[in-house]
Amino acid sequence: MKKHNFSAGPCILPEEVLKKASEAVVNFNNDDLSLIEISHRSAPFVEVIEKGRKLALEHLNLLDKGYQALFLQGGASTQFLMTAYNFLNTKAAYLNTGTWSSKAIKEAKLFGNLVEVASSEDKNFTYIPKGYSIPNDVDYFHCTSNNTIYGTQMNVFPETDVPLICDMSSDIFSRQLDFSKFDLIYAGAQKNMGPAGTTLVVIKEELLDRICREVPSMLNYKTHVEKDSMFNTPSVFPVYVSMLTLEWLKNLGGINFIEEVNNKKAKLLYDEIDRNPLFNGIVAKEDRSVMNATFTINEGLQSRFDSMWKEARINGINGHRSVGGYRASMYNALPLYSVQALVDVMKELERKA
Ligand SMILES: *Cc1c(COP(=O)(O)O)cnc(C)c1O
Q1: Cβ–Cβ < 8 Å for 173, 258
Q2: Residue range 243-274, pLDDT digits in tens
Q3: Which residue, by CA, sits nearest to atom 12 of ligand 1?
């Protein structure tokens, strides 16, 4: 039986997706060829990527609404610079909610002036800043919807007339939002959609008119939109697995369905963190992430807890090196019973300690 995988990324994928994907590596579509040895321009693969692009828009309720979905390479980290390269003409506004936002800010500074509208760095990124205002003379506003490392999540997105760009790497397809508010969404696949190696970009076509400088072809959004995400060889395997995961999600009932499950999982774990005197949450309660729960354990109990959860076949709950403690990532494919297994260990430790 598979272990309970709470890994923060790369992360758990649905078992049926892994099975189909592994079969396709040996024999794709019963055509006696591997998925990864056929031309990316062959009809069977074009069908895969087109299906993936369509499913992504469908899940976000953006199909036929003037948006394009692209499967690019270079990770979300390349999007930090690509967004600025294309759209930062003079000045852009950024919300700093953690490591990933800070990295996006660092890259963007290479291209123009930045207004950091707010930052939660003063309290080691344990909350989401609120009540900030966005200047209306900026080229765009950039934020990170879910702070994977610290375990905070934005519940409210600002109303603004400037284009809204969002790094949704670690919570895309996990909850319902009005995605039409966003002009550009990007997400590295390996948190909630597929294996590492592809990055989903959902871009409003109108935004392409705002590309403000000469951008090299590979880094220019227009190139990829015009070539239907096939300007160069896409990462065929990650694209295929992402498509399968999007299909899996659709068959389950889409974001509406998975959001309920995700809320149940998060409630189960956070309730235990709050109830159990041995454990403490790290971030402000109202900003807790449904995807990544961070917590600490009382002094002296760590090694005992560590051996207990390992014994229970739990994987990947060590906290990020910059935060310490523990982090349980509960992405879409993580079953409720895995969270129950972790909660059971926490209860057992309380009984024995
Ligand atoms: C993991 C992560 C990234 C970095 O993604 P790469 O694909 O490794 O570049 C960026 N932003 C967020 C929110 C993340 O969780």
Answers
A1: yes
A2: 999 999 999 999 999 999 999 999 999 999 99
A3: 169
